Automatic annotation (TrEMBL):
PANTHER family xrefs: GLYCOSYLTRANSFERASE (PTHR12526)
Protein name, as recorded: Glycosyl transferase family 1 domain-containing protein
InterPro entries: Glyco_trans_1
Gene3D superfamilies in the record: Glycogen Phosphorylase B
Length: 351
């Protein structure tokens, strides 16, 4: 792929893998853009909120003569304020920029802060999102939001058909109350009488809101601590190994967008059971490549997992269809779209 030598970009998002273990989509994007010849600057790898804000603002301003365009990831809550700050500096610097809507809770946040959301989206040259859900829910603020799916390094994920699955479950997410990790523990307790050999591996860093400790306590109180293994945050390169050791992937979140962890599980051929929230019903096809259940419903999730483990032909169908679906998200299909976006923005910067 050939790119303009004048194309240089600033990516504002979560570059925290060195601190929390999770490797974000924007970190992958930075590496991929550099691999095809773009000059890439990033912010921020600082975890404390104040240090993060300072790093984003100072990098955006001090590097303004070195990049021609920028992309800012947008989340709800305090993360929205970081995006606002970055965009304020970008406008002051006269730099064209795109926004990428990532926060699954943005539609609810927008109802509380419509003027802030309208102002942020209106000033961007381009707005993208990896989620059809957010594309539809946020169109009142921008009716030209572009869909740019979260990509995968598909060659890193070995496919194995789960046509005869065992009760080996895996959960991959940060420990945060929004992702409801204790539901996974309640699920194990619900299933253990039927599947005494059940195992759950929970992969992800502690986000510091007490969810990790609450999940550990729940495992002890429900008598399933010997059935649950906590790995903590792990490098992105180790995720496929953890997925390969399981047959059923459970996604317990109360809010979601287009989670890469679900796509990774599908690429490996795991049978996905997820809460029916946010962008999930737009991402997957219920009863075809995944099973969807109401949020925070232990009984419903237990019923779905039992179907996967007991219903003839279901697991094999879900596994095969999941892998076929995930194949469309390979990086070679997505990267050219990002390159074209940044080249177009950079051209605006020269006029």
């Amino acid at each position: 792929m050939s790119v303009s030598t004048n194309t240089s970009v600033l990516l504002v998002g979560n570059f925290l893998s060195g601190n929390v273990g999770n490797h974000s989509v924007c970190e992958d994007l930075a590496g991929k853009l550099e691999s095809v010849g773009l000059n890439v600057f990033t912010a921020s790898d600082q975890r404390p909120r104040a240090a993060r804000l300072l790093d984003i603002v100072t990098t955006t301003w001090k590097r303004r003569h070195e990049y021609s365009a920028a992309n800012v990831d947008v989340y709800s809550g305090l993360g929205f304020g970081l995006a606002e700050s970055a965009c304020f500096v970008l406008r002051a610097a006269g730099k064209p920029y795109a926004l990428t809507l990532r926060g699954g809770n943005l539609p609810d946040f927008s109802k509380r802060w419509p003027r802030r959301v309208d102002r942020l989206l209106r000033h961007a040259a381009v707005v993208t999102t990896p989620s059809e859900y957010l594309q539809q829910r946020m169109e009142r603020y921008r009716n030209d939001i572009q869909l740019l799916p979260n990509p995968l390094h598909l060659n890193r994920y070995s496919f194995c058909l789960r046509d005869k699955p065992a009760a080996k479950l895996v959960w991959v997410r940060s420990f945060h109350h929004l992702y409801n990790p204790t539901l996974a523990i309640r699920l194990v307790a619900d299933l253990q009488p039927t599947f005494p050999d059940i195992q759950l591996t929970m992969v992800g860093p502690d986000k510091g809101d007490g969810s990790f400790q609450a999940t550990q306590r729940a495992a002890l109180e429900l008598g399933v601590s010997d059935r649950v293994r906590f790995t903590g945050g792990v490098p992105k390169t180790q995720i496929p190994d953890h997925l390969a050791q399981a047959d059923v992937f459970i996604n317990t979140t109360n809010f979601d967008n287009t989670p890469v962890s679900v796509l990774e599980a599908m690429a490996c051929g795991l049978c996905v059971v997820s809460t029916d929230v946010g962008g999930m019903p737009d991402l997957v096809d219920h009863n075809q490549n995944a099973l969807l259940v109401p949020p925070d419903d232990t009984a419903a999730m237990g019923t779905a997992v039992r179907r996967v483990l007991n219903e003839d032909g279901l697991a094999g169908k879900l596994s095969q269809n999941a892998h076929a679906f995930a194949s469309q998200f390979d990086w070679p299909a997505i990267l050219p779209k990002w390159v074209r976006l940044f080249e177009t923005l950079s051209e605006k910067a020269t006029h």
